[in-house]
Amino acid sequence: MNGFLNDLRFGLRQLATKPGFAAAAIITLALGIGANTAVFSVLNGYLLKPLPYPHGDKLVDISESFPGAHADIVGVSVMNYREFKRDLVALAGIAAYARKDYNLTVDGRTQRITALRARSALFDVLEAKPYLGHVFNRANDQQGRGNVAVLSYGFWQQTFGGDRSVIGRSIKLDGRPYRIIGVMPRGWNFPDKRASLFVPYVFTPFLLHLTRESGFPFHVIGRTKRGASIHTVAMELAQFKSRVEREASASLQAVYKKYHWQLNVLPYKHIAVGDRAPLLWILQGFVLLVLLMACANVANLLLARILGRSHEIAMRAALGASRVALVRQQFAEGLCVAIPGGVIGVAIGWLAVTFIDRAGIGEQLALFDLSPDWRVGLFALGVVIAVAIGISVLPIRQLSRNDLQSLLQASGRTAGSSHSARRMRNGLVVAEIALAAALLGGTGLLVNSFLRLQSVHPGF
């Protein structure tokens, strides 16, 4: 261990003698590691971390769909929602919700906001507790008692300055008075940050008289019971579907068959992430190619450096240094470059993720926590070790191939211009150009696809 520490100290002294070389190598690696850390933090927040709700893995999304219809109809009818509450016994709770934009008036000032209308069971399904006051209850789901509102933490801070006496104050939504009864905790969002406040979803007589196939006004979220799984819910939905189709009139059965009526249940996280998971993995692959280019670049620099020091290395071997000691020294020098590059790269990645979060990019997915955790730490550590090995392996291989005694007798120019050395360095340059061409080609195709999508005429 002491020998390796001595190798690290020697490697640092060697880098200090060539600050320009050290800076170029460290910055090159930092950019590659920073890009990978940023993308992995986003991927980790969306795909690997659990949802920011207690027992979030038990949350499921239930929807109806009609793939055979011309319009993309997805939602749940009021009648089916009410029967789901009765028939889906594998669910511990179920709630309906939908967004709605309102004109909010506070102290004579009006602004346009997005609110979430929800049945009171939503807070039980999400196991959510307010920061101030209380949430609405089943009584507020009834007509005449639904004029209450619960604020999101961010909206409370922005509009009311964090005033704790806000409970009981009156606001107006589309001219109707609502009384503030609670504030949700910091960081609690559902289904995303766009919801400034939450109000009861009151089922009016019009909604209650809608038939099963005449309206799909909201989304439905549920929580499975302990011991139950999403497969249990799917089986109960299949039984429900069979019963409804069996009891329906002949004309309605024909509609169900024509438009391929389906009842779907999916993990809520799948709904929240949507079809972005493949895009995130593709993006991670792209930045890994960038890191490979950075490693090839730095390996080429280290290879040139070791060839320039071949006389020194041969002299050390002649004085008794073993081949293992020489290889260990080269790996230590690789670590001296990789570790500072990794530290700076992680800082760059953290700043990039912070910018994404604060800039509101992808706000509809902002319920996910993108902050670094132990997974990001392990990823960064693994990348640094892999980079240290990657940038050291070719110089070490070249070192092991050379006859140290002949290097001792040769000049640095001769050693550095050997056929095998030139071939290896040229191979690294070719690899860098190939990776750059692949990245540029992929980027060009993505930009071209984006421009084509932007130019599609919607027909109205």
Q: What does it look like?
A:
- This protein is an alpha+beta fold and 460 residues long.
- The protein has helices at 2-17, 19-48, 78-87, 121-125, 153-160, 205-208, 230-247, 250-259, 268-273, 277-308, 310-318, 323-359, 374-401, 404-409, 412-416, 419-454, and strands spanning 59-65, 74-75, 91-106, 109-118, 132-133, 148-151, 170-173, 176-183, 197-200, 219-224, 262-267.
- A six-stranded mixed β-barrel has the order 3-4-9-6-8-7.
- Strand 3 and strand 4 (109-118) form a beta hairpin.
- Helix 2 (19-48) packs across helix 12 (323-359) and helix 2 crosses helix 13.
- The chain is elongated and about 95 Å long.
Task: From the structure above, extract its key features.
460 residues, alpha+beta, 16 helices, 11 strands
Rg on CA atoms, Å? 31 Å
Q: Termini separation (Å)?
A: 72 Å
Mean of the pLDDT scores? Answer: 83
Supply the helix-strand structural class.
alpha+beta
What is the share of helical residues?
55-70%
Range of strand content = 15-25%
> Main β-sheet, in a few words?
6 strands, mixed, barrel
Total of helices: 16
How many distinct beta strands?
11
* Strand adjacency order, main sheet: 3-4-9-6-8-7
> Given the C-alpha coordinates, what overall shape results?
elongated
* SSE run: HHEEHEEHEEHEEEHEHHEHHHHHHHH
Low-confidence parts: 411-417
